[in-house]
Amino acid sequence: MALTGTKRFQNYIGGEWVDAIGGDTFESVSPANGDTIGIFPKSGPGDVDRAVEAARAAFEEWRLVPAPKRGEVLFRFGQLLIEHKDDLVDLMTREMGKVKAEAGGDVQEAIDMSYYMAGEGRRLFGQTTPSELRDKFNMSVRMPIGVVGAITPWNFPIAIPSWKMLPALVCGNTVVFKPATDTPLLGERFVELLDEAGLPKGVVNIVHGGGGAVGDRLVRHPDVRVITLTGSRETGVEVMRNAADALKHVHLELGGKNAIIVLDDADLELAADGILWSAFGTSGQRCTAASRVIVQEGAYEALQSRLVAAAEKMRLGYGWEDDTDVGPVINKAALEKIHSYTEIGKGEGARLLTGGEVATGNGLSDGYYYRPTIFGDVAPGMRIAQEEIFGPTTALIRVRDFDEAIRVSNGIKYGLSSSIFTRDVNKAFRAMRDLQAGITYINAGTIGAEVHLPFGGTKDTGNGHREAGQAALDVFTEWKSIYVDYSGRLQRAQIDTEESPAP
Ligand code: UN1
């Protein structure tokens, strides 16, 4: 795909492409080499209000479109994503920075979600139950809620919007979408393709701009009934607080400090592959990244040397080049934050085994590249073992046995993903039971969630909701219980019930 350069883009509101009311703009810049990707409207509360009004008006029609027909739009969207996959992948390597194979995975996740949720248009199952009274019929049905505000991050710029918007749409809601300011063009392409798939005007709207002006107004707007956010713990807390007065439904997907446990009996080669992929894939910028590795002492030395040797062989570079293993991190602030944690780790007495520096040379200094970084001899309470760094840094922690490994893995405030490498089936099952996380992998790293299972975490990772899978439908619908009395007389529940049949 040709770079769009200084092309100006607009918001999409009520089926019209429009500038921000204030006329301000911001640039999307490639983290790989500093190229300008495009210029976008820097919107404000007034733009959000227009978009919410359009979405509110469109809801009255969209909620009545039969769900299988809504699903067909998503099916066509999936087909369009396939048709445009190569372009989207190329754009993602440029606007967000991840390497080609992973960008392909990101788009594929959205394709999978399109087909999964398209099929949901013919299910959206509720329940039918017997009644305690004669001549009475009971059922529960899912109802759409209204306008959904979707606030998405830059690390999965196509996949995460699909996790939020596609279930919202198939359930009959309408959406105002605020993509991350680091990846606005991918957000815009997503909406263009949804539009091409045949969504009526106003069903999906996009408003570009920052969290302070656009996100905050969405969160506070009285006509937005659901907020779904993937972001930091701090933002999540603020969103929940600001949404409380209007008692909005809030779905939060926040941080992680995910650990891979490696026991003495593990296949070390397999474990090392899983760790490298989970720690350094997407330059460590996944909520599910393995930023801790908890190793039983008998395997520690061998695993450590394997990991260090492999990390040092990883090639940093542009995501669009075939031989790149690790792309850039998203921006300068991220690079600085990641490096500050290297300094923190050293200061805490952890041993820097490899990496720990900004990568320059071979054109890399025009972008934001950080060497894959491994700390050894990390104590579980150190800040580098407790706080989310969101970069290519992982911490090796030595433990004596299985019980200590589980304790250390659980000894954090987050609870998103977890993993254990072992050949002992009993320990594997105990780990499945005891790891306090929304996701547990056995003999695989911490990343690789599939769209038809619930995604999300326990503790400070969220607020008890899940996206993806059937669980996503609970975020975007309200249950209605319906009682149909066809007896023709007043029947009082709990009062006019019959005696149990005699024994
Ligand atoms: C995220 O980092 O927020 O399992 C999402 C995975 C991906 C999704 C990650 N399928 O790592």
What are the SSEs and their pairings?
Elements lengths: L10 E3 L2 E3 L6 E5 L6 E6 L3 H18 L4 H17 L1 H11 L4 H21 L6 E3 L6 E9 L2 E5 L7 H12 L3 E5 L5 H13 L7 E3 L4 H10 L3 E7 L2 H12 L4 E5 L4 E5 L5 H13 L9 E7 H17 L18 H17 L2 E4 L18 E4 L16 E7 L2 H9 L3 E2 L1 E5 L3 H10 L4 E4 L15 E2 L11 H6 E9 L18
The structure holds 2-aminohexanedioic acid (UN1).
What does this structure look like?
The mean pLDDT is 97. This protein has helices at 45-62, 67-83, 85-95, 100-120, 159-170, 184-196, 211-220, 233-244, 268-280, 297-313, 332-348, 402-410, 425-434, 471-476, and strands spanning 11-13, 16-18, 25-29, 36-41, 127-129, 136-144, 147-151, 174-178, 204-206, 224-230, 249-253, 258-262, 290-296, 351-354, 373-376, 393-399, 414-415, 417-421, 439-442, 458-459, 477-485. The protein is 37% helix and 20% strand. It is α/β, with parallel strands linked by helices. The protein is built from 14 helices and 21 strands. Strand 7, helix 5 and strand 8 (174-178) form a beta-alpha-beta unit. It has two domains: 11-254 and 462-481, Aldehyde Dehydrogenase, Chain A, domain 1, CATH 3.40.605; 258-442, Aldehyde Dehydrogenase, Chain A, domain 2. Bound molecules: 2-aminohexanedioic acid. Residues 109, 155-156, 230, 286-288, 447-449 line the site of 2-aminohexanedioic acid (UN1).
Question: Which CATH class of the largest domain applies here?
Answer: Alpha Beta
CATH superfamily of the largest domain: Aldehyde Dehydrogenase, Chain A, domain 1
Number of domains: 2
Q: How do the strands line up in the largest sheet? A: 14-15-16-13-12-18-19
The fold-level CATH name of the largest domain is: Aldehyde Dehydrogenase, Chain A, domain 1
Gap between N and C termini: 77 Å
